[in-house]
Design goal:
single chain, alpha+beta, 8-stranded antiparallel beta sheet, globular
Length: 165
């Protein structure tokens, strides 16, 4: 398993997930930059993602949906707030309705992704910060921690492929 730690911090309203991969930083960066690679791991195996939009620039937006085992769809959006290739990425993250519009009652989270070299390996840290303790608890109750662990568990197979795959 690639995930080496998870930490919930109710005072900081955050969830931190740390994973390590047998690939260099540039290769790991591609799983965020390339929407076809991203949709192969974003979401747990039983809820694969499809990215309909992926404007990977500061101020850009990503729109996606995850399809559940019964064909149900859960939509989400990101707004990229900072991109410092290949080491740092920040985005606001929220749920969307069937038209792709943000669902305000679910709130917005802010994610900071950092990639750092550890020899010829890469450590990826994702820190998600929430608006309130209630939102953090709601996301945890919905299975966010387990879902992210399962999703990130799919990355090794992508990284093991030929760089042009």
């Amino acid at each position: 398993m690639t995930v080496i730690s998870t930490q919930k911090d109710t005072e900081a309203l955050s969830l931190t997930i740390v994973a390590e991969f047998d690939a260099g930083v540039e290769r790991v960066w591609q799983i965020w930059q390339d929407p076809r690679r991203l949709e192969r791991w974003w979401g747990p195996p039983t809820w694969p993602a499809t990215f309909e939009r992926h404007d990977f620039v500061p101020g850009g937006r990503a729109d996606y949906y995850m399809t559940g085992p019964e064909g149900e769809k859960s939509r989400g959006w990101w707004r990229f707030t900072a991109i410092e290739a290949p080491n740092r990425l920040e985005f606001d993250d929220g749920f969307a309705d069937e038209n792709g519009d943000p669902v305000a009652k679910m709130g917005t989270a802010h994610a900071v992704v950092t990639l750092e070299p550890i020899g010829d390996r890469t450590r990826m840290t994702i820190v998600s910060t929430f608006e309130s303790a209630e939102q953090l608890e709601q996301m945890l109750a919905m299975g966010m921690e387990e879902g992210m662990q399962q999703a990130m568990g799919q990355i090794d197979a992508i990284l093991a492929e030929s760089p042009t795959a």
